[in-house]
Amino acid sequence: MTTAFRNPLPVPVLGFCAYSGTGKTTLLLKLIPELNRRGLKLAVVKHAHHDFDVDIPGKDSYELRKAGARQMLVASHVRWALMTEDARDSDPELPHLLNQIEADKVDIVLVEGFKKLSLPKIELHRAAHGKPFIHTQDPDILAVACCDDTQLPSDLPRLDINNVAEIADFVQQYIANWCPATPSLPLAPACGCEADMSKTLSVRQGMDAILAKVVPVSETDLAPLDELDGRVLACDAISPVDVPQQTNSAMDGFAFRFADPMPDALNIVGASFAGHGFADTLKPGEAVRIMTGAPLPAGADTVQPRELADDRGDTVSLQGKLEVGQHVRLAGEDITKGAVALGAGERIDAAATGLLASLGFDKVQVKRRPRVAVFSTGDEVSAPGEPLAPSCIYDSNRFTIKNMAKRLGCEVIDLGIIEDSEASLMAALEQGASCADVVISSGGVSVGDADYIKTALEKLGQIGFWRINMRPGRPLAFGEINRALFFGLPGNPVAVMVSFLQFVQPALRKLAGENQYQPRFIPAITDEVLRSRIGRTEFFRGIYHLGDDGQLHVKTTGAQGSGMLSSMVKGNCLIVLAEPDEQLAIGSRVYIQPFADLL
Ligand code: AMP
Ligand code: MG
Predict the structure, then answer these.
(1) Which of the ligands is closest to the CA of residue 491?
(2) Where are the beta strands (DSSP E) in 135-262?
(3) Among candidates 428, 491, 482, 417, which has minimal Cα distance to 456?
(4) Is the CB of 442 under 6 A from ligand 1?
(5) 268, 308, 276, 280: which is closest to 294 by C-alpha?
(6) In a designed cystine with 336, which of 10, 110, 328, 332 is the match (CB 3.0 to 4.6 A)?
(7) Nearest to residue 572, comparing CAs of 551, 599, 548, 538?
(8) Ligand 1 atom 16: the closest Cα is on which residue?
(9) What span, in angstroms and rounded, lies between the C-alpha atoms of 108 and 173?
């Protein structure tokens, strides 16, 4: 039996396990230099006996620690060591230890010991020692390193324990194939769509159930370049030309034919400007003045920048290092004629519009915009611009939702504020479903709310009322009304935005025909202790910045009330605390979703 383990680092962790005396350290002593030779940077974590010490009695650092310093950091200009007194009854926690490693400076962490943890491992086995295999009891073992003549009781990959290069190949392959587990998103059960409404769903389960219902729009429009922003390309854009069309110069300077050695001076026989090339073929020993972007004359293959050329009027002598083909952009080196320049399903932004223009397209087939109908519910909800009655609040949700939907390229139909009555809600839902692909409401889905939206929805369609194990944004209604999808978002303004970003956004992206619709996560380091509950996904509003250490650091915007829209304005990202996390110490790795990607 192994104990659960989650790698908190953005680099792989690989364990080595064996009975003592098998030669773990001996192997690592050979493996590490071999991996270093292959350009890999390593960290090692080793489990030791309780009474180990790395310091020596009599040294200042030892005495200062013994005097009572809980942490002692000793540093020189070549190395530093941090010793921490952390006496505990149980084994040290590997995720905590891993968080102490400078993960941006290594490609992999090798772990010796901790064999009871459910982390990927290589088993070392020597039949001569007469010990049993470990992998028969441990499903996390990926391969067994043993002697040539050992019989394995399984079909696990086998490695020769005496062949360090082979083991290094395995480690290298492991690093190449490794990808970080996405936070908070363990795989949903295979069934997906008909989620059981009676139970609480994880964020991943909710998202999978929603995405399973989304069918991308099939209709397309032919749209001119100026109207492409935020549209999704419907068919591959195949390049009708080579880009660049002609081989040309990347520098202002001189073009010539490379020879080794080069003559001391070349005769300048003309010039090539952008749009006006040099008509003749260059002969060896000749050069032309050339401008950036100007076509390379026939016969020339190399350019020397002006700064490294001694221009004497009729002749030029070249200085500095010369390499054949330098400073030359080859025809088609960016995009070759006939290649897919932009694939179907790409969302078109400024760069993509420019690329399409550069290929000569003045219009392209794009997916029709999804249509989204939006309304707010609640008798206390008032339209901005009107006087605010006592105990009422202004409607902000409709405006955040409309704005986010528009940024995703949707056409928006605003159905206004709907009073808490079954008849009005039914009318709004029917109207929305008749003219839109997606209907989004806010409010009225929490437990204990006036039942109108629930009864209205039950009468009109197949709607599930879900409890998502997340904060903020626990209640969520989702289903179908006729052919439209329906999202009933919570009422609290931050919960609305967070649930929109997690659930509605991927759905609208998929509906719009985008290939990439799964949310993206970026690792950062928390500068603040973050607390959640195991099993719940917590979304904090955060502010990230680039630290002096070159890594992204993040802290929260402060108070995190789910009604505090100002936290969404102050913040530039969501900090995502995954389901298994309960408390993350300062310096731990977290994942963030930058708003730049989302809003
Ligand atoms: P409900 O789930 O309808 O009880 O709403 C939860 C909270 O969100 C209540 O405090 C509502 O007043 C608030 N709320 C509901 N709809 C809106 C809205 N459109 N804009 C701002 N706040 C809202
Ligand atoms: Mg309400």
Answers:
(1) 1
(2) 141-146, 158-160, 200-201, 220-224, 237-238, 248-249, 253-256
(3) 428
(4) yes
(5) 276
(6) 332
(7) 599
(8) 491
(9) 12
Neighbours of ion ligand 2 (CB under 5 A): 378, 443-444, 491
Provide the pLDDT for residue 534.
Answer: 87
* pLDDT over 60 (residue 196): no
Rounded distance from Cα 378 to ligand 1 centre (Å): 7
Confidence band (pLDDT; 50, 70, 90) for 449?
confident
Q: How far is the CA of 492 from the centre of ligand 1 (A)?
A: 5
Determine if the peptide bond prior to 261 is cis (ω within 30°).
Answer: yes
491 lines ligand 1 (CB under 6 A): yes
pLDDT category of residue 194 using cuts at 50, 70 and 90: very low
Ligand nearest, relative to CA of residue 488: 1
Categorize the per-residue pLDDT at 483 as very low, low, confident or very high, splitting at 50, 70 and 90. very high
User: What number is the average pLDDT over the span 82-88?
Assistant: 86
- pLDDT above 90 for 307: yes
Residue 1 pLDDT = 66
**Ligand 1: nearest atom to the Cα of 398:** 19
Domains, the chain, in order of start with CATH, read: 13-47+91-177 (3.40.50.300), 200-216+369-511 (3.40.980.10), 222-241+336-367 (3.90.105.10), 248-329 (2.170.190.11), 522-594 (2.40.340.10)
Predicted pLDDT of residue 189: 33
Nearest CA to ligand 1 atom 20: 395
Ligand nearest to the CA of 378: 2
Residues 253 and 327: beta-carbon distance below 8 Å: yes
Nearest by Cα to 204 from 196, 222, 192: 192
Give CA separation, 90 vs 20, 50, 87, 413, in Å: 20, 10, 9, 59
Query: How far apart are the CA of 480 and the centre of ligand 1, in A?
Result: 23
